[in-house]
Design brief:
heterodimer; A: 140 residues; mainly alpha; 5 helices; 58% helix; flat; B: 185 residues; Rna Polymerase Sigma Factor, Chain: A; Arc Repressor Mutant, subunit A; 9 helices; 0% strand; globular
C-alpha cells in the first residue's frame, strides 16, 4: 500500500459516520416487517422418485404409441431400381443454345404522362434492339 | 468468527441473529459511503435502511460466488441513485457546501479530505470505483460486478481517477510549500 492509498483509507476513516441508536432501531423495526422473497422454484412440491419414474415411463409409452399410429397406414415407397432413382435426381443437362435467355421482366412504372412514357419505352426498345444486333454480329 | 457468506447462509436457514450481525458489520460502512452520495444525512440514513431491507428481502438471490460486500454495495449504489441529488458533480457545476453532508462529517483539518477532492473532481461512477477499491478493498472484478461495468472500464477508470487525484494533491502540496516560503520571506 503506497502513500496515496494510505491517505485514501485514512481520509475515509475521518468521515464521521456513527450510526445513531435511532437509526439502528429503525432498521431493526423495518426488518421485522419484511419477508424474504423466495424464488418460484422453491415453492414446488417435491416429487418422489417412484412418481418421477412412473410419469417418465408413461410419457415414453405414449410417444411410442403415437409414432406407431402415425406410421400404421402409411403407404410404402415404390420400389424403384437403384439406377433409375439415381438418374431421376440429376436434372438433364439442357442445351445452352436452345435455352431461352433469362429475361429481366419488370413492371412499367409510369410516372409521367403516357405519351412521354411511350417515347421513353420506344427509345429503350431501340437501344435494346441495337445491343442485340451488335451482340449477334459479334457472336457470328 | 463467521464470514459474511456464512452469516447469509445462516440467515437463509432461519437464524434471526445472523442478519443482525450483518447489519452490525455494514451499517457504519454503508452510512459512510452513502453520506458521500446523498444530499443530506437523513437521506443517507434512509438509503442505509432501504439497502438492508432490500438485502434481506432478496437474500435468496445472493450469489455466493461473489463477496457479500460486492452485492450489498451494489444495492446501496442503486438506492443512492434513486435519490440522486441534483447537484452531484457535473464538471461545470459547483457543489453547494451547505448542503453537503460529507462536509459536515469531516474533521476540519489543515488538509482537504481527499474524498472531498474526489467528489469535486471525479464522476460519480469513478468516485464509486475508487471508494470500492481503496476503502472496501474490492478487486477489479468485484467492482465491475458491483457497478455493472466491464473489467477494462473499471481498470481505466481507477487509473485515471488515481492520476487525477495524485496530480491535484501534488499541486496542493506545492502550493502549500509556496505559501510557507512566502510566509518566511
Amino acid at each position: 500500500m503506497d502513500e496515496f492509498e494510505k491517505r485514501l483509507k485514512r481520509d475515509s476513516d475521518a468521515i464521521q459516520a456513527d450510526v445513531s441508536p435511532a437509526l439502528r432501531a429503525r432498521i431493526d423495526a423495518s426488518l421485522l416487517s419484511v419477508e424474504q422473497v423466495r424464488p418460484a422454484s422453491q415453492g414446488k412440491v417435491p416429487v418422489s422418485g417412484n412418481l418421477w419414474w412412473a410419469s417418465s415411463l408413461t410419457g415414453l409409452a405414449a410417444a411410442l404409441m403415437v409414432i406407431v399410429l402415425i406410421n400404421w397406414d402409411r403407404p410404402g415407397e415404390p420400389d424403384l431400381p437403384a439406377e433409375q432413382v439415381a438418374s431421376a435426381t440429376v436434372p438433364a443437362d439442357p442445351d445452352p443454345l436452345l435455352t431461352p435467355p433469362m429475361l429481366d421482366i419488370r413492371t412499367a412504372d409510369f410516372t409521367s404522362p403516357l405519351e412521354d412514357e411511350l417515347v421513353r419505352l420506344q427509345s429503350d426498345l431501340e437501344k435494346a434492339r441495337k445491343t442485340v444486333r451488335k451482340d449477334l454480329d459479334f457472336t457470328f | 468468527m463467521l464470514t459474511d457468506e456464512q452469516l447469509v447462509a445462516a440467515s437463509l436457514d432461519g437464524s434471526a441473529n445472523a442478519f443482525d450481525e450483518i447489519v452490525g458489520r455494514y451499517q457504519q460502512r454503508l452510512l459512510r459511503f452513502l453520506l458521500t452520495r446523498s444530499s443530506s444525512k437523513a437521506d443517507a440514513e434512509d438509503a442505509v435502511q432501504d439497502t438492508f431491507i432490500n438485502a434481506y428481502r432478496y437474500l435468496e438471490s445472493y450469489d455466493s460466488r461473489w463477496r457479500f460486500s460486492t452485492w450489498i454495495y451494489r444495492i446501496a449504489i442503486r438506492n443512492a441513485a434513486r435519490q440522486r441529488r441534483p447537484e452531484w458533480h457535473d464538471a461545470d457545476v459547483e457543489l453547494v457546501a451547505d448542503a453537503d453532508p460529507l462536509q459536515d462529517c469531516i474533521d476540519h483539518s489543515e488538509y482537504e479530505n481527499v474524498w472531498m477532492l474526489a467528489k469535486r473532481l471525479l464522476s460519480e461512477e469513478a468516485y464509486n470505483a475508487m471508494w470500492l477499491r481503496y476503502v472496501e478493498d474490492l478487486s477489479v472484478r468485484e467492482i465491475s460486478t458491483a457497478l455493472d461495468k466491464s473489467a477494462s472500464w473499471t481498470k481505466v477508470t481507477l487509473l485515471r481517477g488515481r492520476r487525477k487525484l495524485t496530480k491535484e494533491l501534488a499541486g496542493d502540496s506545492s502550493a502549500a510549500e509556496a505559501r510557507e516560503s512566502y510566509g518566511r520571506i
